[in-house]
């Protein structure tokens, strides 16, 4: 008996993309979004969509979320789910504020807040890596314990301090601010002329170069640094392999347990830095409940970014931008985004028609029609709805991007060496 093999059928291969393709795609997408916002500003007359004040406020709201997302990236690339980011941020807010106030030095507060977050990360690493506790259970326990422990410490240390108490600290010192001299004076005339794209770019540059705190600059630089460490070094390759296939990594001599420990501790330190930003930069005191769920939002931003630094920066920026608009412009500014979202949905509908996905195309077209009718029949969004616009925007983007996401293969696995 003989068998015939059909070797004539071509093997379908994934397209080979040039080096740096993902980076150019990210820059193209960011540029397209900015051009769309500039056009929306001209059409709607809402100058607040792209002005320098909105840029500064966006950064202020996006930084703590971005730091939490970056912490989640480090942990989950090693295979450990870090739901405890919220608790680690709480540790960062309290330790950062207490030590900054005690020594009258924000840099000592920053160091203390990072160390506090790292301690939370170490507890999570011991539970999940050494004792193989379920990652979700450990993270939730850290969130609950951090909130209670910091309230106890506040009662213990602030009871006799004027202006402080169980729910807040005394006033803390500020970080120094940096600016590029001459930029605002040079570009402000262009910004004031309301020219399409030219004035918008001027506002963007002014917002990014004028009166930025040193902590904000450090936080922004941590995004490319994390990319270089995790994707351009042998250390990063070993760490990511620990999250993809720890058994294969061990067979190649990688010390998987050590990399998981280090990744989760770094994750806690980054979340703690986000807490320091909330206590010392976004505010000037520690307050109970100050994190406001930003650890969970950071996880959402990380998932939206497909576990990549550039993607999570866009996710944090999306939340920060919508939050900045509703704070500075209220319902009128958010109302203008309805028109942009409707246009995007129409483009999605046309794209799905080309792909012969009529059901998705019809749903997108109907949604766009509803948004257009809403936009042209109203002048503003209700305050109750505009307040939650950042959360709604995050959920919408996550639902649209869910089909293209790929988590590390070994994420959440209760792994032990030799088992």
What is the topological layout?
Blueprint lengths: L20 H24 L7 H26 L7 H19 L2 H25 L4 H24 L18 E2 L4 H10 L5 H12 L2 E2 H18 L2 H11 L1 H6 L4 H27 L11 H11 L4 H20 L1 H25 L3 H20 L5 H5 L1 H13 L18
Helix pairs in contact: 1-14, 2-7, 2-8, 2-11, 2-12, 2-13, 3-4, 3-5, 3-11, 3-12, 4-5, 4-11, 6-7, 8-9, 9-11, 12-13, 12-17, 13-14, 13-17, 14-15
Order of helices and strands: HHHHHEHHEHHHHHHHHHH
Average pLDDT: 89
Unreliable spans:
1-12
Strand order of the largest sheet: 1-2
Going by helix content, strand content and strand pairing, the class is mainly alpha
The amount of helix comes to over 70%
- The outline comes out as globular
Q: State the end-to-end distance.
A: 44 Å
- Sheet with the most strands, sense and barrel status: 2 strands, antiparallel
The total count of strands amounts to 2
Helix count, DSSP H or I runs of 4 or more residues: 17
Using only CA atoms, what is the Rg?
24 Å
How much β-strand is present in the residues?
Answer: under 5%
Outline the structure in words.
It is a single chain. By secondary structure, the chain is mainly alpha-helical. 71% of the residues lie in helices and 1% in strands. It is built from 17 helices and two strands. It has a two-stranded antiparallel sheet. Residues 1-12 have low confidence and may be disordered.
Output the keywords.
419 residues; mainly alpha; two-stranded antiparallel sheet; 71% helix; 1% strand; disordered N terminus
């Amino acid at each position: 008996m003989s068998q015939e093999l059909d070797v004539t059928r071509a093997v379908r291969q994934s397209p080979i993309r040039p080096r740096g393709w993902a980076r150019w795609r990210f820059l193209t997408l960011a540029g397209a979004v900015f051009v769309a916002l500039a056009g929306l500003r001209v059409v709607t007359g809402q100058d607040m969509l792209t002005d320098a004040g909105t840029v500064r406020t966006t950064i202020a709201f996006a930084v703590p979320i971005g730091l939490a997302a970056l912490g989640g990236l480090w942990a989950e690339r090693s295979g450990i789910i870090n739901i405890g980011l919220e608790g680690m941020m709480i540790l960062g807010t309290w330790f950062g504020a207490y030590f900054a106030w005690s020594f009258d030095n924000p840099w000592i507060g920053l160091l203390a807040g990072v160390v506090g977050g790292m301690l939370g990360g170490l507890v999570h690493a011991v539970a999940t890596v050494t004792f193989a506790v379920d990652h979700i259970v450990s993270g939730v326990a850290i969130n609950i314990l951090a909130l209670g422990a910091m309230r106890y410490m506040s009662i213990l240390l602030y009871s006799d301090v004027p202006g402080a108490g169980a729910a807040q600290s005394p006033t803390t010192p500020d970080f120094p601010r940096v600016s590029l001299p001459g930029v605002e004076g040079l570009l402000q005339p262009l910004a004031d002329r309301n020219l399409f794209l030219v004035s918008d770019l001027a506002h963007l540059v002014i917002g990014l170069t004028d009166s930025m705190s040193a902590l904000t600059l450090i936080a922004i630089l941590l995004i490319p640094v994390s990319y270089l460490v995790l994707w351009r070094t042998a250390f990063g390759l070993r760490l990511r392999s620990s999250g993809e296939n720890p058994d294969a990594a061990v067979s190649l001599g990688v010390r998987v347990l050590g990399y998981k420990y280090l990744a989760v501790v770094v994750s806690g330190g980054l979340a703690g830095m986000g807490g320091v930003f909330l206590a010392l930069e976004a505010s000037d005191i520690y307050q109970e409940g100050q994190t406001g769920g930003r650890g969970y939002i950071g996880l959402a931003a990380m998932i939206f970014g497909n576990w990549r630094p550039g993607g999570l920066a866009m996710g944090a920026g999306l939340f920060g931008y919508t939050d900045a608009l509703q704070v500075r412009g209220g319902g009128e500014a958010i109302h203008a985004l309805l028109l942009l979202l409707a246009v995007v949905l129409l483009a999605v509908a046309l794209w799905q028609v080309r792909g012969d996905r009529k059901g998705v195309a019809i749903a997108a077209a109907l949604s766009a029609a509803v948004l257009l009718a809403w936009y042209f029949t109203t002048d503003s969004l209700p305050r109750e709805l505009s307040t939650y616009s950042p959360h709604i925007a995050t959920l919408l983007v996550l639902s649209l991007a869910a089909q293209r996401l790929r988590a590390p293969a070994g994420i959440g696995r209760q792994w032990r060496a030799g088992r």
